Amino acid sequence: MKKVYIETMGCQMNKSDSERMFGMLIQSGYEQTENPKDADLVMVNTCSIRQLSEDKAFSQIGVWGQWKKTLKPDLKIGFCGCVAQQKMKEVFRRAPYVDFVLGTHKIYSLPGIIKQVENGERVLVCEETNATEDDKAAKYEIKRVKSVNAWIPITEGCNNFCTYCIVPYTRGRERSRTPEIIIKEAQDALKDGFKEITLLGQNVDSYGKDFKDRNYRLADLLRELNKLEGSFRIRFVTSYPTDITDELIDTVVELDKVCEYFHIPMQSGSSEVLKKMNRRYDRETYKKIVEKVRTKVPDVTITSDFIAGFPGETEEQFEETLSAIDEFELDYSNTAAYSPREKTVAAKWTDKFIDEDTKTERLARLNDKVRENCLKSNQKYIGRTVEVLIENFENHKGKNVITGRTRNNKIVHIPGDTDRTGEFLNAKITGAKTWYLQGELA
Ligand code: SAH
Ligand code: SF4
Ligand code: F3S
Question: Ligand 2 mean position to 167 CA, how many Å?
Fold first, then answer.
């Protein structure tokens, strides 16, 4: 049997695509290997959100190209994902050892591409399509990563065109998948023993806006998924701040399986910077949204994303980001230094670029602030008893621990010598670290 190795470099959506590609390849007669050196086919599923991630993709195929030249002339190499979509022709031209380039739009063409490649052809499939892929998706199994959580994309693409972001160019316009296929995928995952469903989208909360034949939004989907039988949790990421409706918040409160967790990227604490980023809200509006979610949803965790050193960002504006994290009590945030991306609007503002040293310094201060607030947020749980869905059994600093997450997405470490993965256990929280809570079985 031929073996395939996929290196997955991007976000959850990218990981979910890899699971779908594995599924198709298995149906095409391949088996999965964890070791690229054993593989007959190696693929990289790339991310282009920042320059660094793009560079990583090119250096990875460089290494494989070298193997092919010196050790394994029959090795087949595939270049997939967001960098493929963005730089398709360039990759095809620049890297003659790459056998196929497959963008984000037609991943369901993979079985056909593999046949062509096995016949010695070089293939480039990157054209955009507005055709729905739902029917094709139903034809293929998904080979999910072994875990308690199953990722299910509900929307693809993005219409927002934030001035820094490449995603609308690599993923195309927003398309919602039909509830029928999402529910079917959720049922399959639950049948396979998964205990958590995470609905994915660049803007999950705009789910359904593009349906012409029905009025059906994220809240409706959550209600239907909540009715499925069994003990499991439902999450959804990422929420665009101004697309969070009152109905969605009420649904989260009302439905027992939907977890008290919102990921609501703010990107900057400064209203002027937000405007230049083409975000559709200012600091006040974001504040109102977060306050509303906090007031209505008991014990909710709210996390965010921030960019340091956006073109033209002044020291004062950067400090508004730091103060936003404090003022809105954001529990955790992903952070990044601004990275100019080809085709995006902000990348043209070269005269406003912040120098690397300042960006690095701001990012470090931002990370300090995130750590400080994360610890503060964790300390609130000391003494409380919480439900933990166990995800792992591991040796942490010389001790056996079972680790899992609370409904509101806090990681908990519990001493324990038996593997309880997949169980819902109650734990009493005895301590708080920056990145996790310590607990005992209650
Ligand atoms: N759809 C989500 C974000 C998707 S991209 C949203 O709108 O919030 C994930 C994160 O990458 C973004 O939230 C942003 O913080 C970061 N990011 C995107 N483009 C970037 C760039 N050019 N430089 C640095 N960080 C970037
Ligand atoms: Fe990128 Fe903005 Fe779309 Fe998020 S909403 S994916 S940051 S363009
Ligand atoms: Fe995800 Fe990176 Fe593409 S964040 S959508 S894999 S650019």
Answer: 6
